[in-house]
Design goal:
The complex is a heterodimer of chains A (117) and B (400). Chain A has 117 residues and is mainly alpha-helical. Chain A has a domain at 20-100. Chain A has five helices and one strand, in the order H-H-H-H-H-E. Chain A has helices at residues 20-26, 31-39, 43-53, 57-64, 75-97, and one strand at residues 111-113. Chain A is globular, with a radius of gyration of 14 Å. The two termini of chain A are 17 Å apart. Chain B has ten helices and 19 strands. Chain B is globular and about 75 Å long. The chains are: A mainly alpha (117), B alpha+beta (400).
Chain lengths: 117, 400
Amino acid sequence: MQKDQPVPDVSLPPSFESLAHLAGEWAYATESARREKRATSSMPVLNEYYNLVGPLVPAIADHLDTFAVSTPLPEPERRLFQLAQMYMEVAWAVEFVGEPEEPGQVPRQRWHIHDID
Amino acid sequence: MPELQAVNPLDRFYSEDHPELGSDPVPTEPYVSQSYFEQERDKVFRQSWLLACHESEIPKPGDFVVKDAAIFNASVVIVRGRDGMVRAFHNVCRHRGNKLVCTGEAGHAEAFFCKFHGWTFALDGRLRGVPEQDRFPAFDKSQHALKPFSMQMWKGFVFLHPQANPKQSLRDYLGTLADPLEAFPFEQMRLMANYSGTLRSNWKVAINAFQEAYHVPTVHAVSARTLFVSRLCDFRFHGPHRAMTLPISPDFKPKPVEILSSRFTTGMSQDAVDKSDAGGFPGTNPCGTANFSFDINIVFPSSFIDVGEGYYFTYEFWPVQVDEVHFVMKLYALPARKWSQRIGQELSRIFLREGISEDLSTLESTQEGLRSGALPDMILSDQEIAIRHQYRIIEGMLRG
């Protein structure tokens, strides 16, 4: 499996199981994959994700802060972190642009994201 | 005697401080002329140090980056050796000239292996292996190491120079531009984002889009309409280099996600940031501008090192042809100390990426307009004084 594909195991930490149905489709390991997911999703779908995940981001942050940042997260927490990263990507479309991509930009295919994750 | 009034730096007319830069329109020929471009290559780029990377990007022995510098017809591999030293070599096998490293712009190698005939070079450039070496009469491997490319470092930044023996050291070249930046803790920061691409515009069209803020209300209407004012301030000219400061607007109205993110990080800075009592993050905001956001530092001719509180970002613009430029943009920040900070940093990364995308959006259409010949010159506002400075510096090098 390539690193920019969603992970097959979709379990999340017990307190966040309400988001488990999102993990298979929205938990991406790389910036380029998250950006592509945002750009190729419809606004109703992005809005739904935004409304579901947004209220839980502070609790996600609190939970993840119980783990040391210097060591890899357990798999469920890693997926939770990626959902929070994806929330930031989605929020850009929802709050700033109102569309999956800002019109009039250089097409995303013409410049390259060298993933740092 | 009338009392002197302090002038808000945003209200100042910087042209009044620099009459030597003139006020006439500047010609558009430098953006479209092939002969002008060739003069720039010989008299500007062949005389200049160019930013290539920061050594933190190649932390381990064998880590390397490749810079293809079309302006010099050169490809350069920058690599950390087993002794920890960073070196730069022509990316050219000493046998028949094949490129050694062809794939990607960065990676890791135990040695460099030429895919043509299998010559192998150590990380310090020494020729290590030659298949069927006995077929080369009187062959001395020590005479066929990789050819070094001129390289010097300052604060961990790796700069390249196309001449084998540059007339000026890198630090002398940077001059007073570097003085306030000496205090900035570049060495504590880590690469967070890295973007590159090639666009059909002159390299100066690209530079110009990043050295004024007049365009903020239009180009950045989506990303930063309320975040930044449409003016830069405290323009500082250091020989061929330039610096200026971008303040945050006092009328900034953050979006909900920005408020959320600010619970985790302050912009890209961390709660571990050591701010001095004198105010501000070390190495930033030398003029003490209120509502500081970041300093733009342009290392002539085509590199940027922009510094904020706890982060910095670099732009490299590598001319390819008169109407083609390759860009590399990187964001560095203090490492997160908590996972919540990493969530906050994600928004900063997206914000920078999308802001850059907006900046790049006008380059090709501007180049098309200039190429049409409709405008023999362009009129510049006081806020576009950095463009005028750039023009005067290049003209001086070409004519002088």
